[in-house]
Amino acid sequence: MDKALDVDAYAARWETAHPRDILAEVAGWGGHWTLAMSFQREDTVILHWATMVGLSFDVFWLDTDLLFSETYAFYETVQSRYPVLWRRIRPALSLTDQAAQYGEALWQRDPHSCCFRRKVEPLFEALAGYDGWITGIRREQSPTRAQAPIISWDDRHGLYKLNPLATWTTGQVQAVTEDEGIPVHPLHSQGYPSLGCAPCTRPTRPGESLRAGRWEGWDKFECGIHQ
Ligand code: SF4
């Protein structure tokens, strides 16, 4: 696949394009793509459309060993409905080994270090050898994502990064799941607009931002996999 695409030109042209059409155009490029699955509404929408348009892709999920029990159950639901290749990426350290080296419940004392070991480092394994990765991040989700382009070159991992829903609102994504019967993680309807690890995620209160329930009490807004 061409490694010298003019991503800025594509990003500008796709500002007003439908995400499904973006995925269809990318499918025409060939190459081997991988979808980052955090089991949120955005990810299952992309999974649904990527399957429809014939994109050559697989799915990976970063299993930190600390996801909600509902997330592990939801994985079983979606992987049986979408029979693409699913890759479960694990951290180098088990929770027991992490506790032995860095102390118990590292996420309570140093979530930056915990995320680095359980998400950021494993992402390198997840993306090695691919032409591009696809994520569900949207500009509306947080100030840290407000400038996210629809496509860019990911220097850190050496592949394209596609954010086909970058311009979409929560309402648009929600409507698509209802209109097209796409599976939705059960915790979304229980006050969790954003889903992460169980120890670091709480439901949001009325008026709070979409990611306010993540890492409460810490000056931390991202796990580190999105730069
Ligand atoms: S979200 Fe919390 S538990 Fe999960 S890897 Fe980051 S700090 Fe650790």
Automatic annotation (TrEMBL):
Positions annotated as active site in the UniProt record: C223 (nucleophile)
Main subcellular location of this protein, as a coarse class: cytoplasm
Cofactor(s) needed for function: [4Fe-4S] cluster
Example GO molecular function: phosphoadenylyl-sulfate reductase (thioredoxin) activity
Domain of life: Bacteria
Cell compartments where the protein resides: Cytoplasm
Uppermost EC category: oxidoreductase
Amino acids binding [4Fe-4S] cluster: C114, C115, C197, C200
One BP term from GO: sulfate assimilation, phosphoadenylyl sulfate reduction by phosphoadenylyl-sulfate reductase (thioredoxin)
Keyword Metal-binding set for record: yes
Keyword Iron-sulfur on entry: yes
Keyword set, alphabetical order: Cytoplasm, Iron, Iron-sulfur, Metal-binding, Oxidoreductase, Plasmid
Cellular component aspect of the GO annotation: cytoplasm
Start and end residues of each Phosphoadenosine phosphosulphate reductase domain: 35-203
Pathway linked to the protein: Sulfur metabolism; hydrogen sulfide biosynthesis; sulfite from sulfate
InterPro entries listed in its UniProt record: PAPS/APS_Rdtase, PAPS_reduct_dom, Rossmann-like_a/b/a_fold
Record's cofactor remark: Binds 1 [4Fe-4S] cluster per subunit.
CDD domains for the chain: PAPS_reductase
Enzyme Commission number, as recorded: 1.8.4.10
Reaction it catalyzes: [thioredoxin]-disulfide + sulfite + AMP + 2 H(+) = adenosine 5'-phosphosulfate + [thioredoxin]-dithiol
Family: Belongs to the PAPS reductase family. CysH subfamily.
Function (record text): Catalyzes the formation of sulfite from adenosine 5'-phosphosulfate (APS) using thioredoxin as an electron donor.
Protein known as: Adenosine 5'-phosphosulfate reductase
Organism (species): Sulfobacillus acidophilus (strain ATCC 700253 / DSM 10332 / NAL)
Lineage: Bacteria, Bacillati, Bacillota, Clostridia, Eubacteriales
Gene: cysH
